[in-house]
C-alpha cells in the first residue's frame, strides 16, 4: 500500500509545509486584504447613501431621508473605510502608486457628491438658479433649508483629497 | 495484467534530492501541491485584478462568493471578534487549499494529495498543535481547565479529566483520518468499478452490453466524489473553527 511507504513521509511533509506556508503568507499579505476591502467599500456604498425615487412619498420625509443618507455617507467615509479608500488610492513608501487608481477609490468619491448630483437633479438645481419653467412641482415644494443643506454636504468633497479619477 | 486499485496512490520521485540520510525528492505529490498552490493564487489574482470593480465580473464574483461563504461559517461558530480576526485567514487558506487539492485529484491520471494520511495527519496535527500553543500562550496552565467541564461531581473528576484528555488528543487524529479515508475510499472505489467495466467490455458478447452498468455507476460516483471533495474540505475546516474558539475562550 503506497500510503505505508515510510521513505516518502518526509518528502511529502516538507513540500506540503513549504507550499502551504507560501500560500498562507501570500493570502494573508495580498489576497485577502484586497478582497475584504472591496467588499467593505461595496457594502458602504449600498448602505451609506440611499435615495428613494418612489412616487407618492411625502416630500418632507423624503428630504429628511436624503439628508440623513448623505450625512451618514459622508460621516461614515471618515471612518476606517475611508482610510481603506485612501490606502487604495495612496502611494507606497517608495513613492510609486500602490495600485492603480481604481474603482475602489472611485467608490469613495462618488459616495456623497456625484451620486447626489446625478440622482437628485431637481433638488440641486433649485438652489443656485431661479426655478426653470419646466421644473417639477416637487422643486417648489422643497423647503429652502433642506436644499441648502444637501448642496452644502454635496459640495464638501471630504472623501479624498486628490483629484477625481479619470477611470 | 492485473492492475491494483492502489497503484494510483504511488509516490514517484520526479527530481531526486537526497541530503544525507534524508530523502526530500520533488515527487508527483509535491507537483500537485504546487499545482494546487498556483491554481489558488491564479484564482485570487483573477478575483483581485486592479483592485476590483463596483459591479464584479465573473472571476471577482466567484472569489467574493467563496470569501463570503467562509466568512459566514466562521461568524456562526466564533463570536469574539478578536478570535475571528485571527482565525479567518487560516480557515480561508485551508479551505481553498483542500477543496482545490481534492478537486485536482479528480482529474484522471492525477495524484490526490490528500489520499495520503501523512499529508492529512501532518496538516491536522500541525494546526491542532498551533491552536494548543496559542491556548497555552493566552491562559498558561489555566488552559487545562478545558479538560474539566463545570458541574461535575468530585468523584468523577479523575475519570473525566483522563477521558477529556484522550478525547482532546484524538481530535487531531480523527480530523486527519476522516479526510484521508474519504479520499482514498472514493478513488479506490472508482478504480475498482472502472476495472469491472473494462474487464466486462473485453469479454465481449452479453458482457459487452452489461458493462454499461458499472460504467453508469462510475459516472454517478464521480459526481458524488466532486461533491465529497468540497464537503470534506468544509468538514476539515469545521473543527479548526471550533477548536480555537474553545482554546481561546475556554468553553
UniProtKB/TrEMBL annotation, chain A:
<dbReference type="GO" id="GO:0005524">
    <property type="term" value="F:ATP binding"/>
</dbReference>
<keyword id="KW-1278">Translocase</keyword>
<keyword id="KW-0375">Hydrogen ion transport</keyword>
<keyword id="KW-0496">Mitochondrion</keyword>
<feature type="domain" description="ATP synthase YMF19-like N-terminal">
    <location>
        <begin position="2"/>
        <end position="46"/>
    </location>
</feature>
<dbReference type="GO" id="GO:1902600">
    <property type="term" value="P:proton transmembrane transport"/>
</dbReference>
<keyword id="KW-1133">Transmembrane helix</keyword>
<keyword id="KW-0812">Transmembrane</keyword>
<comment type="function">
    <text>This is one of the chains of the nonenzymatic component (CF(0) subunit) of the mitochondrial ATPase complex.</text>
</comment>
<keyword id="KW-0472">Membrane</keyword>
<keyword id="KW-0067">ATP-binding</keyword>
<keyword id="KW-0406">Ion transport</keyword>
<dbReference type="InterPro" id="IPR003319">
    <property type="entry name" value="YMF19-like_N"/>
</dbReference>
<keyword id="KW-0547">Nucleotide-binding</keyword>
<comment type="subunit">
    <text>F-type ATPases have 2 components, CF(1) - the catalytic core - and CF(0) - the membrane proton channel. CF(1) has five subunits: alpha(3), beta(3), gamma(1), delta(1), epsilon(1). CF(0) has three main subunits: a, b and c.</text>
</comment>
<keyword id="KW-0066">ATP synthesis</keyword>
<protein>
    <recommendedName>
        <fullName>H(+)-transporting two-sector ATPase</fullName>
        <ecNumber>7.1.2.2</ecNumber>
    </recommendedName>
</protein>
<dbReference type="GO" id="GO:0006754">
    <property type="term" value="P:ATP biosynthetic process"/>
</dbReference>
<dbReference type="Pfam" id="PF02326">
    <property type="entry name" value="YMF19"/>
</dbReference>
<keyword id="KW-0138">CF(0)</keyword>
<keyword id="KW-0813">Transport</keyword>
<feature type="transmembrane region" description="Helical">
    <location>
        <begin position="12"/>
        <end position="35"/>
    </location>
</feature>
Automatic annotation (TrEMBL), chain B:
<keyword id="KW-0138">CF(0)</keyword>
<comment type="function">
    <text>Mitochondrial membrane ATP synthase (F(1)F(0) ATP synthase or Complex V) produces ATP from ADP in the presence of a proton gradient across the membrane which is generated by electron transport complexes of the respiratory chain. F-type ATPases consist of two structural domains, F(1) - containing the extramembraneous catalytic core and F(0) - containing the membrane proton channel, linked together by a central stalk and a peripheral stalk. During catalysis, ATP synthesis in the catalytic domain of F(1) is coupled via a rotary mechanism of the central stalk subunits to proton translocation.</text>
</comment>
<dbReference type="InterPro" id="IPR000568">
    <property type="entry name" value="ATP_synth_F0_asu"/>
</dbReference>
<keyword id="KW-0813">Transport</keyword>
<dbReference type="InterPro" id="IPR023011">
    <property type="entry name" value="ATP_synth_F0_asu_AS"/>
</dbReference>
<dbReference type="Pfam" id="PF00119">
    <property type="entry name" value="ATP-synt_A"/>
</dbReference>
<keyword id="KW-1133">Transmembrane helix</keyword>
<feature type="transmembrane region" description="Helical">
    <location>
        <begin position="189"/>
        <end position="209"/>
    </location>
</feature>
<keyword id="KW-0406">Ion transport</keyword>
<feature type="transmembrane region" description="Helical">
    <location>
        <begin position="117"/>
        <end position="136"/>
    </location>
</feature>
<dbReference type="InterPro" id="IPR035908">
    <property type="entry name" value="F0_ATP_A_sf"/>
</dbReference>
<keyword id="KW-0375">Hydrogen ion transport</keyword>
<keyword id="KW-0472">Membrane</keyword>
<dbReference type="GO" id="GO:0045259">
    <property type="term" value="C:proton-transporting ATP synthase complex"/>
</dbReference>
<keyword id="KW-0999">Mitochondrion inner membrane</keyword>
<comment type="similarity">
    <text>Belongs to the ATPase A chain family.</text>
</comment>
<protein>
    <recommendedName>
        <fullName>ATP synthase subunit a</fullName>
    </recommendedName>
</protein>
<dbReference type="GO" id="GO:0015078">
    <property type="term" value="F:proton transmembrane transporter activity"/>
</dbReference>
<feature type="transmembrane region" description="Helical">
    <location>
        <begin position="156"/>
        <end position="177"/>
    </location>
</feature>
<feature type="transmembrane region" description="Helical">
    <location>
        <begin position="215"/>
        <end position="236"/>
    </location>
</feature>
<feature type="transmembrane region" description="Helical">
    <location>
        <begin position="87"/>
        <end position="105"/>
    </location>
</feature>
<keyword id="KW-0496">Mitochondrion</keyword>
Amino acid at each position: 500500500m503506497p500510503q505505508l511507504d515510510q521513505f516518502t513521509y518526509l518528502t511529502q511533509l516538507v513540500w506540503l509545509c513549504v507550499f502551504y506556508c507560501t500560500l498562507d503568507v501570500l493570502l494573508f499579505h495580498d489576497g485577502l486584504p484586497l478582497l475584504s476591502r472591496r467588499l467593505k467599500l461595496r457594502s458602504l456604498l449600498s448602505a451609506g447613501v440611499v435615495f428613494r425615487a418612489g412616487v407618492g412619498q411625502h416630500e418632507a420625509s423624503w428630504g429628511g431621508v436624503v439628508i440623513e443618507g448623505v450625512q451618514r455617507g459622508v460621516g461614515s467615509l471618515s471612518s476606517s473605510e475611508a482610510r481603506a479608500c485612501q490606502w487604495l488610492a495612496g502611494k507606497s513608501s517608495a513613492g510609486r502608486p500602490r495600485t492603480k487608481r481604481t474603482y475602489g477609490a472611485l467608490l469613495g468619491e462618488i459616495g456623497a457628491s456625484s451620486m447626489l448630483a446625478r440622482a437628485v437633479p431637481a433638488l440641486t438645481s433649485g438652489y443656485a438658479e431661479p426655478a426653470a419653467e419646466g421644473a417639477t412641482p416637487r422643486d417648489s415644494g422643497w423647503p429652502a433649508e433642506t436644499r441648502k443643506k444637501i448642496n452644502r454636504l454635496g459640495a464638501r468633497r471630504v472623501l479624498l483629497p486628490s483629484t477625481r479619477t479619470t477611470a | 495484467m492485473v492492475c491494483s486499485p492502489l497503484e494510483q496512490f504511488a509516490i514517484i520521485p520526479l527530481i531526486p534530492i537526497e541530503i544525507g540520510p534524508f530523502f526530500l525528492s520533488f515527487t508527483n505529490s509535491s507537483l500537485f501541491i504546487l499545482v494546487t498552490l498556483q491554481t489558488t493564487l491564479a484564482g485570487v489574482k483573477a478575483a483581485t485584478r486592479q483592485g476590483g470593480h463596483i459591479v464584479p465580473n465573473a472571476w471577482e464574483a466567484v472569489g467574493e462568493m467563496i470569501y463570503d461563504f467562509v466568512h459566514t461559517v466562521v461568524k456562526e461558530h466564533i463570536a469574539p471578534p478578536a478570535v475571528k480576526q485571527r482565525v479567518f485567514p487560516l480557515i480561508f487558506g485551508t479551505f481553498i487549499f483542500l477543496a482545490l487539492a481534492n478537486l485536482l485529484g479528480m482529474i484522471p491520471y492525477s495524484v490526490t494529495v490528500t489520499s495520503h494520511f501523512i499529508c492529512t495527519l501532518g496538516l491536522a496535527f500541525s494546526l491542532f498543535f498551533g491552536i494548543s500553543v496559542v491556548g497555552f500562550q493566552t491562559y498558561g496552565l489555566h488552559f487545562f481547565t478545558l479538560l474539566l467541564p463545570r458541574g461535575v461531581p468530585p468523584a468523577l473528576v479523575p475519570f473525566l479529566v483522563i477521558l477529556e484528555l484522550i478525547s482532546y488528543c484524538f481530535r487531531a487524529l480523527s480530523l486527519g483520518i476522516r479526510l484521508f479515508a474519504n479520499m482514498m475510499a472514493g478513488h479506490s472505489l472508482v478504480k475498482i468499478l472502472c476495472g469491472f467495466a473494462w474487464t466486462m467490455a473485453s469479454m465481449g458478447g452479453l458482457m459487452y452490453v452489461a458493462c454499461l452498468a458499472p460504467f453508469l455507476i462510475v459516472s454517478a460516483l464521480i459526481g458524488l466524489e466532486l461533491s465529497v471533495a468540497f464537503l470534506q474540505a468544509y468538514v476539515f475546516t469545521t473543527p479548526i473553527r471550533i477548536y480555537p474558539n474553545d482554546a481561546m475562550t475556554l468553553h
